[in-house]
């Protein structure tokens, strides 16, 4: 499954492999989105195929659903599962309090719904994702297509009034057209540099008409399994 891996892929793989320890026979498991979460899905697929692990997986994107089925994991919807034992997902940034920025892959809405409906959320990440203060990675905000430029202007005005350092916002593109999420929405990326009060910003953003969800995961993550390029793993 692994062959010769670059240090970054090795870091992602060893984190994902170790995180399979959180999964037990019979569990309902939320399956994250992104390149690190894809390693996790492949590792779980191997355990299903070769070791008879029986799990039901709830994917957080159409991409992950497709991969999970390819590797032999039984896929069910969140409403069929009702509640999950654990969700394992990647992140774009995590801090010492295990708060996260997610949504680099555009799946933050399903990811937050699934993680919130789980007994435990475990993040798998390479060490490059660890930050002192969230915000170097542009904060993804999912917005409805209707009036998205008006929503963008409202977000920018609000950032000014909150005295946030970086205030540029960009529409995420897919070639010449705006990126479209699994729910048919768009993503605005907020270039903030440093988020002073992540909890407050998350609350303010979600109160705006037109905003569906933001990529700040505050008090949702229970553990981060961190991989290094030399194969070491640490759990935060
Ligand atoms: C997708 C996500 C991903 O988990 C995040 O972007 C990390 O991805 P990767 O593991 O490829 O670095 O939030 O919406």
TrEMBL record:
Q: What is its EC number?
A: 5.3.1.6
Signal peptide (residue range): none
- Organism of provenance: Shimia haliotis
Q: Which gene encodes it?
A: rpiA
Report quaternary structure and partners. Answer: Homodimer.
Keywords carried by this UniProt record: Isomerase
Family of this protein:
Belongs to the ribose 5-phosphate isomerase family.
Its recorded name reads Ribose-5-phosphate isomerase A
Q: Tell me, which GO biological process terms does this entry list?
A: D-ribose metabolic process; pentose-phosphate shunt, non-oxidative branch
Taxonomic classification: Bacteria, Pseudomonadati, Pseudomonadota, Alphaproteobacteria, Rhodobacterales
GO MF, one term, reads: ribose-5-phosphate isomerase activity
Q: What does the record give as the function of this protein?
A: Catalyzes the reversible conversion of ribose-5-phosphate to ribulose 5-phosphate.
């Amino acid at each position: 499954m692994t062959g010769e891996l670059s240090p970054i892929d090795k870091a992602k793989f060893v984190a994902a492999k170790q995180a399979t320890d959180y999964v037990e026979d019979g569990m309902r498991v939320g399956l994250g989105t992104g390149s690190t979460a894809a390693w996790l899905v492949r590792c779980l697929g191997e355990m299903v195929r070769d070791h008879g692990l029986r799990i039901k997986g709830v994917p957080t994107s159409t991409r992950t659903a497709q991969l999970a089925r390819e590797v032999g994991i039984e896929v069910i919807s969140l409403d069929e599962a009702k509640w999950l034992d654990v969700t394992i997902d990647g992140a774009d940034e995590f801090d010492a309090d295990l708060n996260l920025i997610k949504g680099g892959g555009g799946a933050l809405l399903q990811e937050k719904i699934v993680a919130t409906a789980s007994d435990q959320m475990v993040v798998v990440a390479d060490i490059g994702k660890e930050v002192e203060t969230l915000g170097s990675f542009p904060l993804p905000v999912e917005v409805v297509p209707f009036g998205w430029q008006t929503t963008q202007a409202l977000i920018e005005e609000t950032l000014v009034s909150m005295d946030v350092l970086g205030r540029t916002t960009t529409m995420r593109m897919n070639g010449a057209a705006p990126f479209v999420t699994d729910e048919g929405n768009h993503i605005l990326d907020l270039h903030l540099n440093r988020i002073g009060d992540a909890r407050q910003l998350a609350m303010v953003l979600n109160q705006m008409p037109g905003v569906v969800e933001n990529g700040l995961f505050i008090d949702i993550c229970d553990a981060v399994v961190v991989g290094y390029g030399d194969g070491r793993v640490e759990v935060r």
